Give the backbone structure.
Amino acid sequence: MDLSWPLLLWAGFTGTIAVTWLAFAARRFGVTRLSPVRVLGCFFANSADSVSSRLVGTALHFGIGGVILPLIYGVIFEMVGRSDILFGAGLGAAHGILAGLALPIITAQAHCTGVPRDPGIFGWRFGLFTPPGVIFAHALYGGVLGYVYVIPGFGS
């Protein structure tokens, strides 16, 4: 297995930017109140609105989305021998289903006020758009990774 680290990191960064923009737009238009940065920041801070919580949440969001998840996706792409938008989006949708199911467990572990302890399955208490939005955002992320990441040596 010959992973292209620069390409994986670029794919992860671009996918994370796309999902971050989508989450911001969804909150801005009032279709959800879910903020992945706030939820992640609450693992280490007492207030979801504190500067330290936002900084830590942003670092975790980009660390997970830009480094850890691209590694997992890259290994799957290499094992299957396929890396494209549709396969990546399908993989991302499956990832979104797992994330949606885990959301109540994740928020229950958060240490700060301002994040619901029980957002409901797929976060439906954050807004009715949240459940399909969680799956769509992850499918977008996977699609971007599948599009940007090219399997080294594939097709040569």
Summary: The helical segments are 5-28, 36-41, 51-80, 85-108, 130-148.
